């Protein structure tokens, strides 16, 4: 077998072992800090050792009196998981209602205390949306009302199921509720209130003449050849006096006589009738008749 193939396999094995160790550490810390409200874990390797950042709803319970609880936790991490010089830092969660893992744990605890799954699901969704979440999805799966497995979903707002927006803005948390009929799985997904989706476009108004000066100049369009303007033919210039004498003078056309318009019989009768009425009034009117 080539040496390169053996090296790649060893490298893949180291990556798998490291990821498995991190998953086991997360499960261990989740179980140890359940009462304090486990909100997430971040592991970073530094030249000085391994820095473990633990997010919690109540950091005081994780640290303990005079730091005794966190010292015991650090020794257990170094002894059981073989991390080099682990340093555990505890951070308080700013808004627990927008942390998916904390809300999943609270929902699981509510189910274990006897809450009906519908009441618990709707209450969790309402609390997340009132805290300012852009969207949330709650999934409860297990033996809810009988011996057959069921899955119930409660959702509100905007949710992304796939793609880069889901990886960037969707926070996911999972917890387990242990009941008499069996185990019930609780999944909570919350979209960050500051999420900026690809289809959200912001149009900024111009700042006036200053913005126009700083705006890049667009390339000038090529000028088309100007077409020659269409002009009416020029009137011939008046000939000089010498040429005017030699010019032929055309006789003026005689005015056309006015054409006699023949009146119709109806018009003649109306004219006679009007003349009679005027004579009755005592006014002399001369009405000519054209034959």
Question: How is this structure best described in words?
Answer:
- This protein is an alpha+beta fold.
- Among the domains are: 91 residues, GMP Synthetase, Chain A, domain 3, CATH 3.30.300.20; 94 residues, Ribosomal protein S3 C-terminal domain.
- A 4-stranded antiparallel β-sheet has the order 5-4-7-6. Strands 1-2-3 form a 3-stranded mixed β-sheet.
- Strand 1 and strand 2 form a beta hairpin.
- Helix 4 packs antiparallel against helix 5.
> Unreliable stretches, pLDDT < 50, 5 or more residues?
241-247
CATH homologous group name of one domain: Ribosomal protein S3, C-terminal domain
Number of continuous helical runs:
9
Strand order of the largest sheet: 5-4-7-6
From the helix content, strand content and strand pairing, which structural class follows?
Answer: alpha+beta
- Helix-strand topology string: HEEHHEHHEEHEEHHH
How much helix, percentage-wise, in residues? 25-40%
Distance, first to last CA? 134 Å
Gyration radius (Cα, Å) is: 49 Å
CATH topology of one domain: Ribosomal protein S3 C-terminal domain
Number of strands: 7
Mass-distribution shape: elongated
Q: Architecture of one domain, CATH level 2?
A: 2-Layer Sandwich
According to CATH, what is the class of one domain? Alpha Beta
User: What proportion of the residues form beta strands (DSSP E)?
Assistant: 15-25%
């Amino acid at each position: 077998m080539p040496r390169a193939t053996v090296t790649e396999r060893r490298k893949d094995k180291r990556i798998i072992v490291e990821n498995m160790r991190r998953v086991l550490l997360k499960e261990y810390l989740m179980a140890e800090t359940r009462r304090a409200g486990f909100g997430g874990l971040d592991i970073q390797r530094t030249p000085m050792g391994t820095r473990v950042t633990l997010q919690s709803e109540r950091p005081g319970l994780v640290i303990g009196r005079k730091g005794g609880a966190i010292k015991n936790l650090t020794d257990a991490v170094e002894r059981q998981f073989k991390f080099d010089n682990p340093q555990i830092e505890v951070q308080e969660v700013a808004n627990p209602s927008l942390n998916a893992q904390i809300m999943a744990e609270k929902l699981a605890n509510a189910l274990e205390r006897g809450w009906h799954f519908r009441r618990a699901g709707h209450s969790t969704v309402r609390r997340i949306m009132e805290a300012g979440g852009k969207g949330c999805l709650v999934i409860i799966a297990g033996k809810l009302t009988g011996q057959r497995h069921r899955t119930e979903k409660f959702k509100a707002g905007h949710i992304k199921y796939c793609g880069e927006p889901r990886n960037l803005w969707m926070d996911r948390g999972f917890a387990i509720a242990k009941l008499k009929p069996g185990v019930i799985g609780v999944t909570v997904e919350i979209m960050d209130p500051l999420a900026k989706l690809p289809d959200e476009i912001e149009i900024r108004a111009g700042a006036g003449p200053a913005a126009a000066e700083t705006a890049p100049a667009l390339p000038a369009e090529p000028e088309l050849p100007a077409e020659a303007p269409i002009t009416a033919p020029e009137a011939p210039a008046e000939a000089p006096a010498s040429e005017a004498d030699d010019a032929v003078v055309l006789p003026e056309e005689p005015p056309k006589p006015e054409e006699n318009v023949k009146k119709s019989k109806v018009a003649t009768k109306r004219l006679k009738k009007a003349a009679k009425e005027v004579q009755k009034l005592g006014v002399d009117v001369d009405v000519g008749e054209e034959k």
